[in-house]
Amino acid sequence: MARTPIICGNWKMNKRPDEAVAFARELAPKVAEFGNVERAVAPTFLALTAVADALRGTALQVAAQDGHWAAEGAYTSEVSVTMLRPYVSYVIIGHSERRAYLNESDENVNRKAKAILAEGLRPIIAVGESLAQNEAGETVEFVRSQVMAALAGISAADMAEVVIAYEPIWAIGTGRSASGELADRIIKSAVRDTVRELYDDAVADSLRIQYGGSVKPGNMEEFMSQPNIDGALVGGASLQVADFTALIEIAARVKG
Ligand code: PEP
To answer: What integer pLDDT is reported at residue 148 of this predicted model?
Structure first.
């Protein structure tokens, strides 16, 4: 089954609004051609509306780095998915940095996923194991549990809008990536086959699953050559126009 790859740059807490807009304006024309790959950038909330305005009418989409499930209310510092709707196509949820530093729970990831889908947006649900879990041989069991918790109560029809990003925590920002083959094996057994059990073959085979963790132009081809990997969630390499452009070019060539 053909799945359109998606490359999403997660800028994390980088780029002021002026820098973010300048970057988006420089990047958009460079990646205008690769029609068989979806591409998106995720600025900070502070820069998000300005970047969305700058990218309107281009093929470069905007993602949010998080989004609260309640439409509005007494949630100091939060931004709701409802408020994000006019500006973004995707919302990243469950990133390991939020899980590790900001108490993001599986339960909240599930609430957010449902709110994102209810607003007609697409969640990118990040899952992945720690180094200790990896070394203890708990990767598949742990990632599987994160996938099951995140998808609880989500219909098969809504699954067409869901993207899952498998990001081993020990590979994020460390320069140490999983091998393409290993990432593919975990993605298949812990993510795609779990979705197959929860839903059916059609849902599992059409689900887009990204790899994330120190993806760079030098290792992108290895990841994109894997049958179960449908794109990448990218931190560091998304902060440079040349690197991010190269990642999109490679995805378009290898998956095209
Ligand atoms: C990420 O934060 O999602 C990520 C994959 O970061 P990096 O590419 O820098 O490892």
So the answer is: 98
